[in-house]
Every structure is written in C-alpha cells, then in structure tokens.
C-alpha cells in the first residue's frame, strides 16, 4: 500500500488547504460582527501555528519503498529523499534498489524520468542501484556519500549527471558513461577513492576516454574532467579540470604531458598515495589546493614556466623533503607549503616578489631560507612555527613584514636586516627586526638585545623563543604587545620599567620558567606591590601576569586572562577574599597545581580558567560563584573531590568539567542543595553528589597555621586566626571549619 505525504494545513488567501484537498471559506467584509472577527483571527492564528509546527515532508508519495515527487501536469515522477532534509536520509535506502520505469499512485501512472537532487544522499547502506531507461537526468549530490555502492549502470537514456552526483562513493570501482550523456557536472565523481576504471562509450559526441586512458575527457576542449587511480593522461589533453583526481588515494605517480597548459584547483587534492609528479614547462600556474595533503610526495620541481604558486597548493605535503622553485615564480600563495614539516631548505628565486600569509607555516624541518632581493612583502605567519630555522636575513627590497611572520621560530638565534633597507633595521646588531619609522620591534629571537631606542614591542615579537633566558626592557619602551613573550619557557625573570603604560593580552602567558616578576616602583600604570612577583594593573587592582613564585596580595580584586597560564611549576595558590573574578585561561596548563580554594568573594570563573590542570586533586568553589565558563575545569583528570559551597548551583558553560571522571570524583554541596545539583546542567553528571557540612577530610596538624574560619553555613566568621584563638571567648559555641593553604579541619567549641 503506497504511503502518501501527510496532509499539512496551510493558510491561503482563499481559505485553508490540507494536502491535496481544499476547504474554502468565504468571509464577506461587510456586516461582520466584532465576535465574528475575533473568531476569524483566533482560527487563523491557530491554523498558522499548526502549520508552522509541523514540517513538510520532502516527498509526495512512497511506492514499493521508493520515495517520489510527482508532476501531475506531465505525469512524471522524480526519485527523491525521505524526510525534510537529505541529511536524515541515511536509512532510507539500503541493499539493492531497482528503480522502475513507472510508478502508480492513486490510480495514476507516472513515468520515472529523473533521480532528483540528493535522492540517495548519505545512504551508506546502499550496495547497488538499477536505473531504468526512462531516466534522463541524475541530479546534484544524487548518490553523494553512498560509500557502500560498488557498481552502478548508467542507462543510455541519461543526458545529464549533476554536480557531485557520485562524489564520495568510495566503494565504486568502475564507471561507464553511455553515448547519451551530454553534461557532467563538476566533481561528479570526486573522492571516489576506489575507482580504477573509467570508460566513455565510443559513440559519445561530448566526452571520450581516448587511448584507453581511464578518464573522462571533454572532447571539444581536450580537458580531462574525471580521473581515477589508473589514469594515464594522454598527450592531447590541454587542461586538467578542478578536482579531477580529488582523493584518488591509489594514484601513485602521474606524468603530466607537455600539451597541458593549466591544472585546476584541487586537481590532485588529497591523493595521499601520490609519490611522484612531473609538471611540464607548458604549465603556467599551480592553482588553489592543487596538491593539498599529498602526503606521499617527497620532491617537487616547479618548472620555469610557472609564474604563481596558488594558495594551499602543497599544504599538508608532510613527506616533502625537497622543493625546487622555478625562476619565473613571482608569488608564493597563502598556506602554499603549510605543514610541510620535512622540508629542510628552500631557495626562493629572484623572481619572487611576495610570500603569502602562512606560506611556510609549521615547516618545522626548515633550517635555512634565503629571501632574495626581489621580495617586497612577507605575509602574516609566513615562516611562523619553523622551529628548525636558526637565522634569517631580510634584504633591502622588503617593505612589508606582517607581525607573526617569524612567530614561534623557537630555534632562531640570528636576525639581520640589510643595512640598505629603508623600512626595517637591526640597529646595534640587536638580532631583531625593528620598524625604522616607528621604532617598534616586530621580530625578536633567542639572542636579541632590545636597543634603548625601541619604543614598543610588537604582537608576537618573541613568541615561543624558548631559548630566551633573560630580557632587559629599556626605559624607552611604552607598550608591550599581545603575546609578545608568550611561551618563552626559558625566561626566568622580567622587570617592567617605569615607562611602560600598556601590556597586551597574554604578553607573558606560558612563561613556565618565570620565578621573578618586578615592576619599577616609579611606574604609574602597573606595580608589583608587597613583593608579590606579579604585575598588577594599579587602577583596577587586576593581577595580569603571575609566576610560580607569586603571592596574590589581599588588595587584588581580579585575576586577569592568562595571568598564570602555563605556570607548570605553580604547586599551590591562595585566592583571597578580595578577588571577585578569575579570567579566561587564568590558570590553564598549571598541571603542577594539586589543590585550589576559590574564595567566597569570587562570583565568576572564566572560560578555560583551570583547563588541563591535570595535577588538581581537590577544588573548593566559594559560596558566591554564580557562573563557571566554558571548559573551565576541562582536562582536570586527577580531580577526586570537588566542593561547591554555592547554595544555588552555578551556571556552567559547555564542557566545564569535560574529562573529569564523574564516576569517581565526589561532588560535595550544601546538604539543602543536593537535589538542585542533581538536576542542574553538568552538575547532574556527577554520580557521587553528597551533602557537605563544611568539613573536608584533609586536616591540618600545624599549630602555627593561620586560618579563615567559617560556620557550617559557609559564612566566614573569622580571618587570620590561629587554632588557639578559635575559642568560646571569641565565637559562639558550635562547629567551625578552619581553612588554610595547607588544608582544612573541623573544630567544635
């Protein structure tokens, strides 16, 4: 029994229509009473709400387990998908499907003439399909991601195959194009990684597979539009289409003949098995994504005919050890060699004028590079994270170097600018790049000595200079940019002079070796009060840079973003009751921390505040906390005890306790709030939620310890008290909780 589309109501200008039936109501505009008007509007609103709440289905009917859309005018049917979206189509078609030439619904026979857009989209359980001779078109994405499809016969009636029609059919091994086909959309067979045989009927006037090449060639243009693992490119081919060999993972070598003048974007993208490619002198450009993630490639010679290397052309070619760039190349595109970690050296020819953003990013094996005197611009992150790079010389031609161009080059020990360069200099042999007109230091290295004439240190200037052990910031510097010294793990001490008025976000984040942080006493913007070994923003009392030896002063009201990030040597921290907020990434990566007590004045804990503090075993969250940010305690895998003193469960951002073992970690909460925590988002995931009377199992035996004293309701009733002072002379009789950096204990008086 065929199943038809459920009848859905919708309001038209002439009444209410359900499915194929229409009930029409006339409402004369004259002589309508107020009550009638009210009724009309109530009914209209009701049906409108009903209509919006029930989604329309994608198909008109289902016959013999095949979904169709029907055209009543010409009595034709198109195979379509189940449900409102094709993404819900996964289980609509499985096994062997035979599409009939015609189908009958409600007594009417329809000729099946097309397979519609996305009809079998995502049907990974589909193994074979029989397409009848009545079908003339196969739509876009029709069999997209049908990974279980091993064979398909396209009948001689089909004239068009749509964009991505058989894309990602990884199980498909062979394709035959009949003589009737006159149109094949772009990427129709892309990502068919198992395809070994591609044939075009010899009588086809639009396409051919000349010379048994195992490819589809557009006859009139000699453009190869579909290749496979066994393709041999004929000498008559003049162009290789975009994504022609996309994800042909079994393709191991390819020789491009001299007849080819252009290679399309992504032509060999993700051909992971490709170990050899020969590019002839006839080709003038290498396009976007052309050899993207061809991880098997070991060497590439770019001929002298090439004038540009496109964006991402060789990105992810992790096996590439040798690159020869021809003398005609003028531009190296963005991400061109991104992640080519095995490249050891690159010679850039004198023809090149620009090196794009991230062009050689993360080429960690690159130990030397020669930038010719023709280059005028070096893009953002162009050589960033090239950890093997030891020296850089900037020629006099360069007029533009983006910040972060050499960021993360942890092995860099020598940076020199040609003395004739009018835009940049490395004055006084400072081993840095300085923007001459602004006196801004934009690139530093492990051996940099900052000259007294420098007025600012740019964003990312010393990023990941892990060999930098000490730095003297002269009194001429007024600003330190974002991430300026980020992850300089070898840096042990920093002194901020009185001239500095601006320190950027994360400027000293991740400096795990820092033991001493000092601000000149005459600085009016920042201070390191009470010998705290930190940088504090004076006007706001915000601690913005800390280290493993920091003692947070009682006057600090907030801990800034990334203040202690990466301080792996930090083993304990006391967050006083003056602190009201903890910023983003404030203690991220402090894996040496074992316990944290967050004071009762703190109201918010920022995103990622304690993420990856894997050494944490216990955390106490004060009673005033109302919000805990995204991933705040993510990766705190050692956590066994979590105490929340807040009566109302704090609102948690996504992943606040991700990778905390919620089956073993005890969650201790106020006894009256147990049920609230058991139903609250993310808190309810803890299996052991217990009542907390203010007593932890950790006890302090030291008589000299100084405590914060709380009653069983979590209210602080004493501060800076020794145990001997907690007596009936000072406090009413009862049970009290004594809290110190060493632990806590219960005392009854």
Provide a descriptive summary of the structure in words:
The chain is mainly beta and 749 residues long. Helices cover 3% and strands 28% of the residues. It contains two helices and 62 strands. It is flat and about 105 Å long. Mean pLDDT is 89; it is low at 1-56 and 696-701.
Secondary-structure map:
Layout: E1 3-4, E2 9-12, E3 15-18, E4 21-24, H1 34-53, E5 61-63, E6 66-71, E7 76-79, E8 95-98, E9 102-105, E10 108-115, E11 126-130, E12 137-138, E13 151-153, E14 160-161, E15 174-177, E16 183-184, E17 197-200, E18 207-208, E19 216-218, E20 223-226, E21 239-240, E22 253-255, E23 262-263, E24 276-278, E25 285-286, E26 299-302, E27 308-309, E28 322-325, E29 331-332, E30 345-347, E31 354-355, E32 368-370, E33 377-378, E34 391-394, E35 400-401, E36 414-417, E37 424-425, E38 433-435, E39 440-443, E40 456-457, E41 479-480, E42 493-496, E43 502-503, E44 516-519, E45 526-527, E46 535-537, E47 542-545, E48 558-559, E49 572-575, E50 581-582, E51 595-598, E52 604-605, E53 618-621, E54 627-628, E55 641-644, E56 651-652, E57 666-670, H2 674-679, E58 688-692, E59 706-711, E60 716-722, E61 735-740, E62 743-748
Parallel strand pairs: 7-10, 8-11, 10-12, 11-13, 12-14, 14-16, 15-17, 20-21, 21-23, 22-24, 25-27, 26-28, 27-29, 29-31, 30-32, 31-33, 33-35, 34-36, 39-40, 40-41, 41-43, 42-44, 47-48, 48-50, 49-51, 50-52, 51-53, 52-54, 53-55, 54-56, 55-57, 57-58
Antiparallel strand pairs: 1-5, 2-3, 3-4, 5-6, 6-7, 9-10, 18-19, 19-20, 37-38, 38-39, 45-46, 46-47, 59-60, 59-61, 61-62
């Amino acid at each position: 029994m065929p199943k038809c589309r459920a009848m859905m109501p919708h309001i038209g200008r002439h009444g209410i229509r359900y499915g194929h039936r229409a009930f029409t109501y006339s409402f004369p505009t004259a002589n309508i009473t107020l009550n009638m008007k009210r009724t009309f509007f109530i009914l209209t609103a009701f049906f409108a709400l009903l209509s919006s709440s029930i989604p329309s289905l994608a198909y008109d009917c289902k016959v013999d387990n095949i979904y169709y859309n029907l055209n009543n005018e010409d009595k034709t049917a198109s195979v379509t998908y189940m449900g409102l979206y094709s993404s819900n189509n996964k289980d609509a078609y499985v096994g062997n499907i035979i599409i009939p030439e015609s189908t009958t619904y409600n007594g009417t026979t329809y000729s099946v003439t097309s397979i519609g857009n996305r009809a079998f989209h995502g049907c990974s359980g589909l193994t074979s399909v029989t397409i009848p001779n009545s079908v003339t078109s196969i739509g876009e994405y029709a069999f997209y991601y049908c990974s279980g499809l091993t064979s398909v016969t396209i009948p001689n009636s089909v004239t068009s195959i749509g964009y991505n029609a058989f894309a990602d059919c990884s199980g498909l091994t062979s394709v035959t194009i009949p003589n009737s086909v006159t149109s094949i959309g772009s990427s129709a067979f892309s990502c068919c990684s198992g395809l070994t045989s591609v044939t075009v009927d010899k009588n086809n006037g639009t396409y051919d597979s000349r010379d048994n090449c195992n490819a589809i060639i557009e006859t009139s243009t000699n453009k190869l539009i579909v290749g496979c693992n066994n393709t041999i490119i004929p000498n008559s081919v003049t162009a290789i289409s975009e994504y022609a060999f996309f994800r042909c993972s079994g393709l191991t070598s390819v020789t491009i003949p001299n007849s080819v003048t252009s290679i399309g974007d992504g032509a060999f993208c993700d051909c992971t098995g490709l170990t050899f490619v020969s590019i002839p002198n006839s080709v003038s450009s290498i396009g976007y994504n052309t050899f993207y993630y061809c991880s098997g490639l070991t060497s590439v010679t770019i001929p002298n005919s090439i004038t540009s290397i496109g964006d991402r052309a060789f990105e992810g070619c992790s096996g590439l050890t040798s690159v020869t760039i021809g003398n005609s190349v003028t531009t190296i595109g963005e991400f061109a060699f991104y992640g080519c970690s095995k490249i050891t050296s690159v010679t850039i020819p004198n023809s090149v004028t620009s090196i794009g953003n991230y062009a050689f990013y993360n080429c960690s094996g690159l130990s030397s590079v020669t930038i010719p005197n023709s280059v005028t611009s070096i893009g953002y992150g162009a050589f960033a994270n090239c950890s093997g790079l030891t020296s850089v010389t900037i020629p006099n031609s360069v007029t533009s170097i983006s910040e972060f161009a050499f960021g993360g080059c942890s092995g860099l020990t020598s940076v020199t600018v040609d003395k004739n360069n009018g835009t940049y200099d490395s004055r006084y042999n400072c081993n840095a790049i300085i923007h001459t007109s602004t006196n801004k230091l934009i690139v530093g290295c492990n051996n940099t000595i900052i000259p007294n004439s420098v007025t600012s240190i740019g964003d990312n200037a010393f990023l990941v200079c892990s060999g930098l052990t000490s730095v003297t910031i002269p009194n001429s510097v007024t600003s330190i940019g974002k991430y300026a010294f980020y992850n300089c793990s070898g840096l042990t001490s920093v002194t901020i002079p009185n001239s500095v008025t601006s320190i950027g976000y994360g400027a000293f984040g991740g400096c795990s070796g820092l033991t001493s942080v000092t601000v000149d006493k005459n600085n009016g913007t920042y201070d390191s009060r009470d010998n705290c070994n930190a940088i504090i923003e004076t006007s706001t009392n915000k601690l913005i840079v800390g280290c493993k030896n920091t003692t947070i002063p009682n006057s600090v009201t907030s801990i800034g973003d990334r203040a202690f990030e990466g301080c792996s040597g930090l083993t304990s921290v006391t967050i006083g009751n003056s602190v009201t907020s903890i910023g983003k990434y404030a203690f991220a990566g402090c894996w040496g921390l074992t316990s944290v007590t967050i004071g009762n004045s703190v109201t918010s804990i920022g995103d990622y505040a304690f993420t990856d503090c894997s050494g944490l075993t216990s955390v106490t969250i004060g009673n005033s906390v109302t919000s805990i940010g995204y991933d705040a305690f993510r990766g705190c895998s050692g956590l066994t005890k979590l105490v929340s003193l807040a009566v109302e469960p704090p609102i948690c951002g996504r992943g606040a306790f991700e990778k905390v073992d919620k089956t073993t970690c005890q969650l201790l909460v106020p006894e009256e709030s147990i049920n609230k925590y058991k139903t609250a988002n993310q808190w309810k995931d803890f299996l052991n939620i217990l009542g907390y009377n203010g007593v932890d199992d950790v006890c302090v035996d030291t008589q000299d310890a100084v405590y914060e004293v709380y009653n069983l309701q979590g209210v602080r009733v004493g501060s800076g008290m020794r145990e001997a002072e907690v007596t009936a002379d000072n406090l009413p009789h009862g049970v009290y909780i004594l809290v110190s950096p060493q632990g806590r204990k219960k005392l009854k008086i």
